[in-house]
Amino acid sequence: MTQITVKVNGKVHSHEVEPRTLLAHYLREQLSLTGTHIGCDTSSCGSCTIHMDGMAVKSCSILAVQADGCEITTIEGLATDGQLHPVQAGFKECHGLQCGFCTTGMIMTAVDLLNQNPDPTESDIRHGLEGNFCRCTGYHNIVRSVQWAAEAMKKEIMVE
Amino acid sequence: MSNTKYIGQSVKRVEDKRFITGKGRYTDDIKLVGMTYAAFVRSPYAHAKVLSIESAEALEMPGVVAIFTGDDIKASGIGGVPTGWVINFRNGDTMKEPPHPLLIATSSTAKHIGDPVAVVIAETYAQAVDAAEAVVVDWEDLPAVTDAFKATQDGATLVHDSAPGNLAFDWELGNPISEVDAAIEASAHVTTLDFINQRMVPNAIEPRSYIGHYDEATDKYTLYTSTQNPHLIRLLMCAFVLGIPEHKVRVLGPDVGGGFGSKIFHYTEEALVTWASQKIKRPIKWTETRSEAFMLDAHGRDHVSKAEMGFDAEGNVTALRIKTYANLGAYLSTFGPVVPTFLHGTLLQGLYTTPKIHIELYGVFTHTVAVDAYRGAGRPEATYLLERLMDLAALEMGKDPVELRKRNFIPAFDGVEQPGYQTQVALQYDSGNYHGVLERAVEMLDYGNFRKEQKEAAQNGKLLGVGFSTYIEACGIAPSAVVGALGARAGLYESAQVRVQPTGKVSVFSGSHSHGQGHETTFAQIVADKFGIPMEDVDIVHGDSDAVAFGMGTYGSRSLAVGGSAIVKSIDKVLEKGAKIAAHKLECAADDLEFAEGKWTVKGTDQSISFGDVALTAYIPHVYPEGLEPGMDFSSFYDPANFTYPFGCHIAVVEVDKETGKVRLRRFIAVDDVGNVINPMIVDGQIHGGLAQGIGQALLEGAIYDENGQLTNGSYMDYAMPRADDLPMFEVDRQITPCPHNPLGVKGAGEAGCIGSTPAVVNAVIDALWSGGYQVKDIAMPLTGERVWRAMQNN
Ligand code: FES
Ligand code: FES
């Protein structure tokens, strides 16, 4: 067992974990943050995407011990003061989800994508999301959701 | 309809909030007090005899609670998992239905990769996996057969000794074969295709997950399961597998992360965690890994076919003759036998007036996982065959594929003024306007211009192609008497209860199950409009066998057509009773009242009483009609009069790279007619998702077993599924031809996209090759660059 300390969604947690514990399992099992989903065993589906020190990563490809000292945001921590993140709002607005299973990872990837490229083309979005599988939507409305969010974020910046 | 504030509107989904904030509750998210975890010991071979199972050492490992083997199951006398449909042989012999045990016992044989021999239950999942690896099984590896056609040939290894020739059944449908033979013989042109409709892995992104929980205090079982139909699972598991009384079993299907067919069926693991939880008196969770999902979730398609279509000199279809070998896998899954027969053979009329049709079909056992319904289930296979033949015939005869279709289309009929269309293959279509969808799609394509562009491209050495597909499907499965006559072991109706609460809020309990389709929104739209109340006042409850009276679940695009109609039936009962209460309060006859905008009004006056007041009166009946029971709560079962028949036209435009064979999908147009539409946004979403899966089959996907029965591409690293950058934006439009026989006029939209799209894409690639002088008739799906390139070289 190894002691780790991580800041998750603004709160500091200290736990003993087995060295082989994946970060995804740690979040789900120990912290009960079940919005991070597990869809595969080959780091291919992106369902488990979270932010680690501000960057989107697949939490099934990282050991919990590697996250020691890091700052983590999961889907549960994305909305601030009950206010949906524009990407979350975009997914609802544009019907970017059906079963919802890929959605949390998809949103976390899309947030990082827009942070890095606030003005993406359709093809930028499609390339940016290629690490995340969705079996329900055919991606059409996911692309529109991200476009909607990009517009919304631009407006927000203009208002500020 | 009294008013339509919500119906027909793209109302945003009420279920989204929990999903976009990470608050969805899928089975694997649920943790019960004292919960244990299961891991399975599985066969590494496709066909192997279990010589011995040694688990004593594993039992001593840290955290291990119990280990059960096939021998324990055998000793306890538990039955196997049954199929839900019987198709007997043509000569009257009964279908071969060999047992499908929960675990393989000593001296029995495993029949596909991953067939389980033991389950290990431990305090943590990691401990269960560690101990499962320590269970020692002595195997005798045996030869395997994986190809449906080869399995029927002399000398092929048998999957079950009880099924000679590896046949579960053989089957035929249509006109007498002699008439069809003669019509083909007399045809001016015959287009022939030998092809494979490859095996698909459904790949819902949520892996299957189950929690079995036996509660000693109440002697009750609870099964949480990622299923599309909780009641059906309860029925099969209680009555056929475990023999426990169903009033002692609650089955819950919480949020479910996609199904596409694969979560309809009753799987052995569901019964096993339920049974074992009673043995250890603790809850047991099992969630499959993706590798297990590839190995074990029922696959789809997998037909080997010879198809011939005859034409007269003008291009009228004269006859269709099909011979198909359908791979059923090693065991008959819940709907396994019906998919290639009554969901496939019955669709061979397509949209055409073909006068003579015959299909001969063999249901074949192989050493592979079961094949069952996968989005479209049989109908994509039928459409693939018809629409490939149609475009190829046009190329061969030098005719235009659009004109060839129009010439052969069944004329428009609404099913009210004009009767339904009786096919040669048992079904009677309800209503249709096939020219309409084709014309609209061709207009969106700008066909004339496309052909010009294609010619220019060809002159510049580029290969552009267009592919058409006009499909029909049979949804809303279906009248119980009809499916019973066709071999179904269950009726296929749906139930719904509408409970008006004292304050006028409404709870609806539906036997349909949403796993992405948005029932909580669509159903609420209907109820709110019918009662003239805000949508917020309506709650949709589903996925709980204790809360909902009964249900047949969600598959075959049946939720709205069948489940929605059941809701309407209960709504009508509420309104009828409400009118009696209103009449009493308003001191008039019920006939003098009209219901609109949430209130009953005495016709021609301003005297009225609101829905809420009537509800309250029903529960506080101080002033109440004599002889009327208090309360406002109605259940209904709706058994449809017929299937529904959505149809549409899909067009693909592709570019094929001459050097590499790589196909780029440039455009995809879909004009679908799914009858009336309650929520256009949700219907479009269903179409998009279906298109991606159909296109995936055409270009990327396909399970590959090697000759030893190993699944060689059983992971997301090896099995290519469409990603965001493989697909274009879809161009989607619709036409509306209402269904004449259900109260909502709806037909169903869940599978349409997946049915029409596959042949359109393949046809487009073939068209592109012909435009460059490569007269290739067929390329086996998926049309990878390599396969297309090879086809060009061999031409
Ligand atoms: S679970 Fe992490 S990528 Fe699939
Ligand atoms: S919404 Fe179901 S997998 Fe994406």
Plain-language structure description:
Chain B: Keywords: Molybdenum, Oxidoreductase. Chain B: This is Molybdopterin-dependent oxidoreductase. Chain B: Residues 21-143 form the Aldehyde oxidase/xanthine dehydrogenase a/b hammerhead domain. Chain B: InterPro entries: Ald_Oxase/Xan_DH_a/b (IPR000674), Ald_Oxase/Xan_DH_a/b_sf (IPR036856), Ald_Oxase/xanthine_DH-like (IPR016208), AldOxase/xan_DH_MoCoBD1 (IPR008274), AldOxase/xan_DH_MoCoBD2 (IPR046867), AldOxase/xan_DH_Mopterin-bd_sf (IPR037165). Chain B: Pfam families: Ald_Xan_dh_C, MoCoBD_1, MoCoBD_2. The complex is a heterodimer of chains A (160) and B (795). Chain A contains five helices and five strands. Chain A is of the alpha+beta class and 160 residues long. Chain A has two domains: 2-77, Ubiquitin-like (UB roll); 86-158, [2Fe-2S]-binding domain (DNA polymerase, domain 1, Orthogonal Bundle), CATH 1.10.150.120. In chain A, strand 3 and strand 4 (55-58) form a beta hairpin. Chain B is α+β, with helices and mostly antiparallel strands. Helix content of chain B is 29%, strand content 23%. Chain B folds into three domains: 27-142 and 205-258 and 263-295, Aldehyde Oxidoreductase, domain 3, CATH 3.90.1170.50; 379-474 and 643-794, Aldehyde Oxidoreductase, domain 4; 493-638, Aldehyde oxidase/xanthine dehydrogenase, molybdopterin binding domain (Aldehyde Oxidoreductase, domain 4, 2-Layer Sandwich), CATH 3.30.365.10. In chain B, strand 22 (593-596) and strand 23 form a beta hairpin. In chain B, the strands form seven sheets. In chain B, strands 3-5-1-12-9-10-11 form a seven-stranded mixed β-sheet, with helices on both faces. In chain B, strands 7-15-14-13-8 form a five-stranded mixed β-sheet, sandwiched between helices. In chain B, strands 18-26-27-28 form a four-stranded mixed β-sheet, with helices on both faces. At the A-B interface, helix 2, helix 3, helix 4 and helix 5 of A face helix 1 and helix 18 of B. The structure holds FE2/S2 (inorganic) cluster (2 copies). One FE2/S2 (inorganic) cluster sits between chains A (97-103, 134-137) and B (205, 257-258, 516).
